[in-house]
Amino acid sequence: MRSFLIALAVVSLSASPALAAPCKDAKGKFMKCPAPAKKVVHCKFKGKFAKCGTPGAKPV
Length: 60
Known about the structure:
- The structure is a single chain.
- This protein has 1 helix and 3 strands; from the N terminus they run αβββ.
- The protein has one helix at about 1-20, and strands at about 45, 50, 60.
């Protein structure tokens, strides 16, 4: 049981730097994190996909 807890602690500590990696450039310097991608909105009209500008189309 003790070795399991030690292994769990080592794994959790090694995962921490990976969380900060997206906000670093190739040289390891901190930079502004990129904005998350916008979610694409799909619309349906009478049960079929349609352009969202179509009258009567509703976002799904």
